[in-house]
Amino acid sequence: MRAPAFWWRSPGPGASLLQPLGALYGAIAARRMSQHGMRSPLPVICIGNFSVGGTGKTPFAIELARHLLRIGERPAFLTRGYGGTHPGPLIVEPSRHSARDVGDEAGLLARHAMTIVARARDAGASLAAKVGASVIVMDDGLQNPSLAKDFTFAMVDGETGIGNGFCLPAGPLRAPLAAQWPFVQAVVMVGKPRSSGQALKEEATRRGLPVLPANLVPDREVTAALRGQRVVAFAGIGRPEKFFASLQTLGALLVAQLGFGDHHRFTMRELARVSSIARAHNAVLVTTEKDGLRVKDVIRPAPSNQPDPEGPAILGVRLLELPVHLQVWEETELQKLIARALFIRRGSGAEPARG
Known about the structure:
- The protein has helices spanning about 15-35, 55-70, 100, 105-110, 120-130, 175-180, 195-205, 220-225, 240-250, 270-280, 290-300, 330-345; strands at about 45-50, 75-80, 90, 115, 135-140, 150-155, 185-190, 210-220, 230-235, 255-260, 285-290, 315, 315-320, 325-330.
- It is of the alpha/beta class.
- The protein has two domains: about 30-215 and about 325-345, Rossmann fold (3-Layer(aba) Sandwich); about 220-320, no CATH class.
- The strands form two sheets. A nine-stranded mixed beta sheet has the order 3-4-2-5-1-6-7-8-14, with helices on both faces.
- α9 links the parallel β9 and β10 (about 255-260).
- About 45% of the residues are buried.
C-alpha cells in the first residue's frame, strides 16, 4: 500500500471525510494498548513508531544490537516477519529462508544477530529465552500488547513527524498520540525535525523523555559507485520518494524512478519492465537493501547470507543495492539508555513498562 499524500499535509477534505473512521480505529487501538502482556524472563527493548511508514526502525535495531554485542550481551531480534508467509515462531536461517518466507526485515536483521520471526510475540519471546538469548530487541510492536516491554524507543521521521495527526485511515497514526506517549521511554529523531517533527521533539522534552538525534547514512562504497552514474531507481518502501531524493543528493543521475507499495512483492514482469527502462537509458538499476531481498526471491530463489559484491543482474542489467545504517549522534547517551533498559529488569526487579 502507498500512503495517501493527504496524510502528510494539513487536514483537508479527504482526511476530514475519513476522520470518523480514524477516531473509531484510534479508540480501539488505544484500548488494546492498555492491556497487559506476558512478561518475558529476558529484558525486552522495543523499537516502534507512532505512525505507519518507514522511520528507520530496522537500521536502529541493528545499531542497538551492535552496542549490545559489544558489551557481551546475546541479543535476539524479534519481528513479526511482515510480508512473509511463515507464522513462526522460528529462528531465521538466511541459507534456508527467503524474504517470501519470513519477510524482508527479518532477512536483513538475520545478517547481524539471531532473528526470530513470530506473529505471536509472546511465543517468539519464549523461544528466545529457550535458545540462550540474553535480551530481546523487538523490531516494531509499540502498539502490540501481547508482550510487556521494559524500554521502548519511538522512532520519528523528522521531516514528516506524524503527518496530519489523524489515525488510520484518515492519517498515519496507529493510535492517538496521547494514548501512545505513556508507553515510550525515549525518542529517536531521524533527520532534521520540521513542523510536526519539531512539535514531537518539544512534547517529548516536556514529558522528560530523552531525544536522540540520528541520521540514515548510506554505504560509502555504493555511494561512490553511484556518483555521476545514470540510474533507474525503484523501491517498495513506506516513502519511495525519500529514497529517490537521497540518490539525487548522493550525485546519482536519475533518469527514471518507480515507486511501489511498502513490502511490495515484485513480479518478473515488473522487473523486466524496470530493466527495459534501464537498457533504454544505458543506466544501472538501484534499489534499497530490503527491496533487494525481495528481488532475489524472483531472480535467484536460493537466498544468500551475504550480498553479492558485484550485485545481481536483472535480465542482463546490473542491480545495485544501497545499504544504509543509522548513525546516532549521541552514542554515550544511547549507551546510558541501554544500560537503563537492562537495569530496569535486572537491577531493580521492577515491573516492566506496560504494553
